[in-house]
Automatic annotation (TrEMBL):
It comes from the Bacteria. Residues 2-119 form the Response regulatory domain. The modification 4-aspartylphosphate is found at D54. The lineage of its organism: Bacteria, Bacillati, Bacillota, Bacilli, Bacillales. It comes from Geobacillus thermopakistaniensis (strain MAS1). Keywords: DNA-binding, Phosphoprotein, Transcription, Transcription regulation. This is AraC family transcriptional regulator. PROSITE patterns: HTH_ARAC_FAMILY_1 (PS00041), HTH_ARAC_FAMILY_2 (PS01124), RESPONSE_REGULATORY (PS50110). One of its GO terms (molecular function) is DNA-binding transcription factor activity. Residues 411-509 form the HTH araC/xylS-type domain.
């Protein structure tokens, strides 16, 4: 703890220094001054935690110095040591937030006690500030995670209207309408470099708000959106012009081509996923043909609503491990393609389906690189075999993923809860321990164990409380705190809801056996 002493009497300063050095080893006198102007300079230069200061000094007096220091926004506490016991001085000192007012000649015990009280207050204030800073940083990191996770959910998850409303409450912005574009970058290069380049370009040129997603398989999604209070942009021409400019700038700087697919604009949040899929298909379409670099998906290549629904059903069957259902959907689809399209066209449409599947897999953290080239198949039978082989590879990767989630990461989460149930656990904290994003952790936990995270924590705590009630003579209040609850009344309500008995009733029942 750093202290400064300002008094026009050198003898008084020496006396205070000796008191501090003899009795307060944790406090260091960092500077001394003889008047108010020196007090202001000391505060600026040394940034002491506490200043002992006299009132009547030549030039700028003590109260004027305190006022000047406060106006400079410097954060320190003051203890006045003065021979003047006047109410006006005391009232003005209170207005400046002075912590103690000691009268000269000050007894050693009074000075030491005052310094101890104020230093304890300063230390408590510093701890609170550090705690607040850490909390703000945690909230900032959590907000970033929520925003990033939200875009992945928007692109890949079938979310109910109620869930969308809950997501909206967590986001620092609202969306009235928007559209996606998907950028396919060249083979060479570093993903972080491409993303940084794009963000720099958009920060100065984007005609509306935007959010950049995660890079996967050299493809980067970008959502452009407007809030309810923003003006309505002419979405298609404005974003298409921006995409063309991005392609030109990239080519000029890196000497390589970008392929940018655009999705249709939508005014409903739950429809924006369709815009993403359109943009993804368009990026693949133009990159595959290399005839143009930017555009919407041409009418002849647009996937019908039934095809999009089939893709969704196919992925859901794979994700749930129903490989037979997935194979049946895939075979039916390939047969329909072969009967209504030329073989090369059927191969291209099959490839579009597996591009979509690859993107969905990447959102789960699964790296997937397609081995088969469907457009090189020489017969419908060969196309079927190639598609089923790829499907089996995806199913195997998903099975490994499910096992890892179910028995690895989620098991680790349960172990963590079992060890730390007495602490104020949060879903975000446990998800971080398991290495899973909070959204997917909550969803996977419920799917694997048939119970929500909160309910599981509650069950563990109540089971530990039951053991303590049966096997110890601890008070109900002690047991309440030992299992992670801060309010005995709330603990009793939860316990009764879980067991049908109050804690005291439960103890009587088990001890009567």
């Amino acid at each position: 703890m750093k202290v400064a002493i300002v008094d026009d009497e050198a003898l008084e300063r020496r006396a205070l220094c000796k008191m501090i050095s003899d009795h307060l080893p944790d406090i260091e006198v960092v500077a001394e001054g003889a008047n108010g102007r020196e007090a202001v300079e000391i505060a600026k230069r040394y940034r002491p935690d506490i200043m002992l200061i006299d009132i009547k000094m030549p030039g700028l007096d003590g109260l004027q110095a305190i006022e000047a220091i406060r106006q400079d926004g410097l954060d320190l506490e003051f203890i006045i040591v003065s021979a003047f016991d006047l109410f006006d001085y005391a009232k003005q000192a209170m207005r400046f937030g002075v912590k103690e007012y000691l009268l000269k000649p000050s007894r050693k015990e009074e000075v030491i006690s005052a310094l101890e009280r104020v230093s304890q207050e300063v230390a408590a204030k510093r701890r609170h500030e550090e705690s607040s800073r850490q909390l703000e940083e945690q909230i900032r990191r959590l907000q970033t995670l929520v925003e990033s996770e939200w875009l992945s959910v928007l692109m890949t998850e079938d979310v109910s209207a109620d869930e969308w409303e809950r997501w909206k409450e967590l986001l620092p912005f609202s969306i009235a309408s928007g559209m996606f574009l998907v950028i396919q970058f060249p083979d060479a290069g570093v993903a972080d470099e491409w993303k940084s380049w794009l963000d720099k370009q958009l920060s100065g040129k984007a005609p509306t708000r935007y959010w950049i997603g995660r890079m996967a398989n050299r493809r980067l999604p970008v959502l452009f959106f407007r809030s309810p209070n923003d003006g309505e942009p002419a979405w298609k021409p404005v974003i298409q012009a921006l995409a063309l400019d991005l392609a030109r700038q990239f080519s000029a700087r890196y000497g390589a081509a970008l392929y940018i697919g655009l999705g249709s604009p939508f005014s409903r949040l739950d429809q924006l996923r369709s815009s993403y899929y359109e943009a993804l298909s368009a990026a693949h379409y133009y990159a595959d043909r290399q005839k143009a670099q930017v555009g919407f998906l041409p009418a002849e290549a647009t996937r019908a609503g039934g095809e999009a629904e089939r893709d969704k059903q196919l992925f859901e069957a794979l994700r749930l491990g129903d490989i037979e259902q997935a194979r049946m959907i895939c075979l039916t689809y390939i047969e329909e393609l072969a009967s209504s399209h030329s073989l090369p066209a059927a191969g291209r449409k099959a490839e579009e389906t597996f591009v979509w599947l690859g993107r969905l897999l990447s959102e789960l953290g699964i790296r997937y690189e397609r081995l088969a080239s469907f457009t090189s198949c020489r017969s419908a039978a060969e196309l079927k075999r190639a598609a089923l082989d790829e499907l089996d590879r995806i199913a195997a990767d998903l099975e490994v993923w499910r096992q890892q989630q179910a028995y690895g990461k989620l098991g680790k989460a349960k172990d963590y809860i079992d060890r730390h149930y007495a602490e104020p656990l949060t879903l975000e904290e446990v998800a971080e321990q398991a290495g899973i994003s909070p959204y997917y952790f909550s969803k996977l936990f419920k799917e694997q164990f048939g119970i929500t995270f909160i309910d599981y924590v509650t069950n563990v705590r109540i089971e530990r409380a039951k053991e303590a009630l049966a096997e110890t003579d601890q008070s109900l209040k002690e047991i309440c705190f030992s299992v992670g609850y801060n309010d005995p009344n709330y603990f009793s309500r939860v316990f009764k809801k879980q067991t049908g008995l109050s804690p005291s009733e439960y103890r009587k029942k088990v001890q009567a056996r």
